[in-house]
Here is the input.
Amino acid sequence: MESWLIFAIEAVVLLLFFTAVILIPLAKNPVWWIHDYPKDIQEEYFKTHERVPTQMLSATVLIKKGFAVVFALILLYFLAKWAGAYDFTSGFAVSYALWSVINWYDCFILDWIVFARWKKIRLPGTEQMNQAYHQKKYHFIRALYGAVLGLLPSVIIGVIFSFYH
Here is the structure.
C-alpha cells in the first residue's frame, strides 16, 4: 500500500512539473514548441515568419526530444526506485505507468483542453484557426506514438533494476 501512495504522490508532482516545463516556455514563446503544432498551423505561421526546422529528424527537434527522453530516463529511474521497484517487472511497470500518466495527461488535458482554448499560446498569425487548434485526432495519434516511445526508457529502467538491484 505504501508504494501505491508513493506512486500517487510522484505522479501528482510529476504532472505539476511537466505542466510547468511545457506551459511556461510555451506562454513566453509559442515558437519554442512549434515542432509539436499540427502541420496546418505551422504552415500558416510560416507564411509570415521565417521557417525553422520542425521535422522530427531535424537537429533542433532531436536535441529537444533527446534531452527530454534522457532526462525522463534518469527521473523515472529514481521515481521507480522510491516507489519500491526492485526487479525488471517492477522497474518497467512503475516507470511505464508514470510515463503513461504524463503522456495521456499531455494529450487529454494539455492538448485537448489547454492548447485548444488558451489563445496566449497560439502562434502569431494563427489566432483565428480555432478548428485547427481543436484537432483531437492529431494529438491522440501523437499520444499513441508517445505510448510506444515510452517503452524504450521503461525497458532500460527494467534492465537496470534486473542487474543492479
